[in-house]
Amino acid sequence: MPGSLPGLAHVRRRGANVTLPNRMKLFAWIVRIVVFVLLFVLALRNTAEASLQLFFNAVWHAPLILILFAAFVLGAVAALASVAPNLMRQRMELARLRRALPDASAQASVSAASPPSPAAAAPRDGKPVPYNVVGPKV
Fold first, then answer.
1. d(C-alpha 98, C-alpha 5), whole Å
2. Domains of the chain: total
3. Which domain, by its residues, includes 24?
């Protein structure tokens, strides 16, 4: 029975087939609804007029929740702007590696077909070569 083995996504209960991903989706939607209701109540409670003093004697008069929302949006934009260069660099490297994958797999199949050379397996200076050590082999 598939539901009796640990690690499987299916759970059987008296004829009904309920998958764990569906339960997780339901839980995620419940959490989203609760967060939305809490934020909505927060917005209703903070409708008082507030003034934000900006540079050069500029003042922005708006409801407090609108000012908080603007601060949140500016923080999210700043976070995305700080992550974007690394994300783009990783995407470019991933694309480069995907383009190089057929060549590397062809070279690996050719090298796997040829027997290993005895010089590669020989110890260096009487010491075995530590393949699991990171860094230069000294």
1. 36
2. 1
3. 2-99
